[in-house]
Structure formats: C-alpha cells, structure tokens
Automatic annotation (TrEMBL), chain B:
<dbReference type="InterPro" id="IPR013833">
    <property type="entry name" value="Cyt_c_oxidase_su3_a-hlx"/>
</dbReference>
<keyword id="KW-0249">Electron transport</keyword>
<keyword id="KW-0472">Membrane</keyword>
<comment type="similarity">
    <text>Belongs to the cytochrome c oxidase subunit 3 family.</text>
</comment>
<keyword id="KW-1003">Cell membrane</keyword>
<keyword id="KW-1133">Transmembrane helix</keyword>
<dbReference type="Pfam" id="PF00510">
    <property type="entry name" value="COX3"/>
</dbReference>
<dbReference type="InterPro" id="IPR024791">
    <property type="entry name" value="Cyt_c/ubiquinol_Oxase_su3"/>
</dbReference>
<feature type="transmembrane region" description="Helical">
    <location>
        <begin position="35"/>
        <end position="56"/>
    </location>
</feature>
<dbReference type="InterPro" id="IPR033946">
    <property type="entry name" value="Ubiquinol_oxase_su3_dom"/>
</dbReference>
<dbReference type="InterPro" id="IPR035973">
    <property type="entry name" value="Cyt_c_oxidase_su3-like_sf"/>
</dbReference>
<keyword id="KW-0812">Transmembrane</keyword>
<comment type="subunit">
    <text>Heterooctamer of two A chains, two B chains, two C chains and two D chains.</text>
</comment>
<dbReference type="InterPro" id="IPR014206">
    <property type="entry name" value="Cyt_c_ubiqinol_oxidase_su3"/>
</dbReference>
<feature type="transmembrane region" description="Helical">
    <location>
        <begin position="191"/>
        <end position="212"/>
    </location>
</feature>
<comment type="function">
    <text>Cytochrome bo(3) ubiquinol terminal oxidase is the component of the aerobic respiratory chain of E.coli that predominates when cells are grown at high aeration. Has proton pump activity across the membrane in addition to electron transfer, pumping 2 protons/electron.</text>
</comment>
<feature type="transmembrane region" description="Helical">
    <location>
        <begin position="76"/>
        <end position="96"/>
    </location>
</feature>
Amino acid sequence: MSADTLHNSAHGHDHGHDDHTHGDHGHGEAPHGSLRGYMIGFILSVILTAIPFALVMTGKLDGTTTAVIVLAMAAIQVVVHMVFFLHMTTTAEGGWSFLALLFTVIVIVITLSGSIWVMYHMNANMMPSPAAVTETMSQQ
Amino acid sequence: MSAQTFEATANGETPLFYEVEEHHHPEGSSTMLGFWMYLMSDCLIFAILFACYAVLGHSYGGGEGPKQLFELPLVALNTAMLLFSSLTYGFAMLTMERPGASVRAVQGWLIVTGLFGLAFLCIELYEFSNLIHEGAGPWRSAFLSSFFTLVGTHGLHVTVGLIWLVTLVAQIGMHGLGQANRRRLMCLSMFWHFLDVIWIGVFTIVYLMGVLG
C-alpha cells in the first residue's frame, strides 16, 4: 500500500487516471473454462452423486454413517461445481465475488443453524410429539 | 494517505481529496459482478426455504412421510438431467469462446441444454402431480407445504432459466455473438450452474436425508 501511494504521488498529475486502469484487467476478462475443466467437474459430480444415491437406495451402511457420507459428498460437490462450472476463484472480479460468496455462506450458516437450533428446542418444549398425541387419544 | 497529502502540498500542488470526474468503465464491465450479487441474494432465499424445510420437515400431520412418498430412481434421473444440462451449457460456452465461433453451433448446444432442462421440469411436474393425486398435496401437512415451496421455487427458477434460454437462442440468431450477447450468455451460464448447485442441496437434504429418516 505504501509503495503504491509513493508511486502515485511521484506521478502526481496522473494519479486520478492511474486508478482507472484496473478496469482493464479486473472486469473485462471473464473467467474462462476449458474442456478439460468441464469434464473433470462433470465426472467428479457424477461420482459424488452416484455414491450417495447408491448408499441410500441399497442401505448397505447404517443410518448415521450414510448420513455423514451423504452430507460430506454434497458439500464436496458444491465446491466442485463452484470451481469447475462457475469458475470461482479468489481473484475473480478483484476478489469481490469471492467476498460476496463468503458473506453469503456466513449468513446461510447463521440462518440454518440458528433456525434449526431454536426451533428444535421450541418443538421439544412446546409440542407433544405425534406419537404422544395418538397415545393420549387411544387412551381416552 | 496523510503522507501523500503532505508531500503533495509540499510540492505546491492542491491535494486531491475526492475525485470529481466520473469513472470511465466500459459498458457492461460490472454486469458479471452485479449478476453474481443477485445470485448470492437468491441463495439467501433458498437458505430460508431450506431452513423452513429443516424445521417443518418432520411435521407429517399424521400423514405419509418422505419414505413412503419419494421415489429415489425418479430423483436420480432428474439429477442426471440437470447435471447433463450443466455440461452441455459448458460446451455452449466453450464453443462461444472459440475464435470465429459459429452461431449455429452455440445455438445447438443451447437447445440441447434446454431439452435437458425441459426433461427435468417434466419429471418434476410428473412427481408433483403424482403426489397431489395420492392426496399428498401442499395442504396435507407442514412437511409437504415446505417441500412444495422449496422444490417448487427451484422448479420456477428452472422455468425462468428456460424462457431466458429460448430468448437468447432467438437473440443470437438475429444479432450474432456480439459483446452484449456474449455477456448475456455468460450471465445465463452462471444462473444455470447456480441452479444445479441449489439442486445438490435439494436432492441431498430433501430426498436422500428424507428417505434415510
């Protein structure tokens, strides 16, 4: 930053215009994919989709293990799509799109975990479970 | 910053506190970033719908749950359709980026993408009509209300994407692959791949985790 400031003050007159050149390399170029990139993304996606479906449909492993694997594969596949299909990099658009993504992820995590946490306790404290209701009804 | 101001004043120049001139950005240079911002806000809509489903997804109201209602082979087929459409859209973009790209080739890949998208929509509507036929419509239970809202919103996005795609096929047919049309194709590309990312969440959380129990 300091080197940049010094550089700019050295060319005092150009200062205002120097800053504009970032538009040429920052925004003009869109991220490009390659055939290889799309194929890698596609094959990884197929694998990461087929395994969870196979595990759930055959029921080979116990419930908890399957759930963990299914969720982990989904998370990996989201990253695969982001990298190979949406061409997400930390430097695209001068880092702003990555920053927006990061912000969104934080908000999503707060929304999801907050809702599930609060509402789970509300449910547990406030509402009789359907099983309990049926029991009471059959007793009456 | 203060050092710069000081130095500038010492040289006998007026320090520049703010810029009076407008920035000269080339037309459409900020479209991709702006569209990405839109996608992120769309992502928040889906996050809220996922949260609703997570909260209400076990309130069956004495009716049937995911285990009885969902047909995984159909969902797997649907997932394949969307994944293929993502790949073929990628091919459309690669064809477009090639120097001297032919409009016909790009249109061809777009139409293939559109057909996969249409197949996805038809399968989803078939599933919905089956559920409603079985008496498991969105009015039946909180679980089904949140299910239809979440999956329906995704389906609505795919429908809008399809309309946009058809529009662009006509557009590039009439005006060729100019700078503006390339930009539009890139926006739709992001939109389309984004819908596939949302679908990963849908088939994992709603269908697979639902059937798992």
